[in-house]
């Protein structure tokens, strides 16, 4: 049960990202946020891996690391940009709600690993839950371009998860996260220069980005990759639907957003999908072990 729990804890930390970003100045570039977040998250872990000699650069799995870094860099740029256009709730729900579908398709078509019926049921429940949360914002105008960026972000996250599964077969979680986000920073940096980083002089911005870099990146992705070692990519991405659930709950209790009855039903459906996937997957593994 620890592996699904690790992924759930990671998703809860990710769910705090959108809320945390609301504490940043409105004129801060989304790409600059992604760059500094990755630099803090990856740089901190890279320093730890070098100090404790947990990494071997000569025999490193560069192919999967570069692909993982490129996909997570693309994900962050698309995700933070979509939030600026659609709002935190809609952008998060559209991104993470679409990711399990994309992940299941990628896992099936590329890796020839057909998702289970339990995954299908849990994903359907979770997507319905996301939709019910989405219509809570129905009175607001959702920009089509922002929604499209969110779907592309979901596809990028699905690619990252599937690629990371391959990376974790060859490397430990700590150096894998360190290398992935350090490279991600290098990919994002040229695109963030035009807006500069003077916004970091504001203490509120600085403390917010430190939280996003350490807790929502370093700790969250360490938990996610540790959990990913023993479960399928599609299962991990479906479990990460706890992210919009967390964002929704924080919106109610911290930001003061109002939820309709349908929205609370959506929360229940999201929780139900996660429970079905976690318990159903465990029973399926036990059944397979007991088979003669």
From TrEMBL:
Q: How does it sit in the membrane?
A: Multi-pass membrane protein
> Per UniProt, what is one Pfam family of this protein?
EamA
TM stretches of this protein:
30-52, 64-83, 89-111, 118-135, 141-161, 173-193, 205-224, 236-256, 262-281
- Give every EamA domain span: 5-134, 145-278
Keyword flag Iron:
no
Among InterPro entries, the record links this protein to:
AA-Vitamin_Transporters (IPR050638), EamA_dom (IPR000620), EmrE-like (IPR037185)
Q: Which SUPFAM superfamilies match?
A: Multidrug resistance efflux transporter EmrE (SSF103481)
Q: Name the keywords, alphabetized.
A: Membrane, Transmembrane, Transmembrane helix
Mention any one GO cellular component term assigned to this protein in its UniProt record: membrane
Q: Where would you find this protein in the cell?
A: Endomembrane system
Q: Which family does it belong to?
A: Belongs to the EamA transporter family.
The identity of this protein, by name, is Transporter
Instruction: State the species of origin.
Output: Lysinibacillus sphaericus CBAM5
User: What taxonomic ancestry is recorded?
Assistant: Bacteria, Bacillati, Bacillota, Bacilli, Bacillales
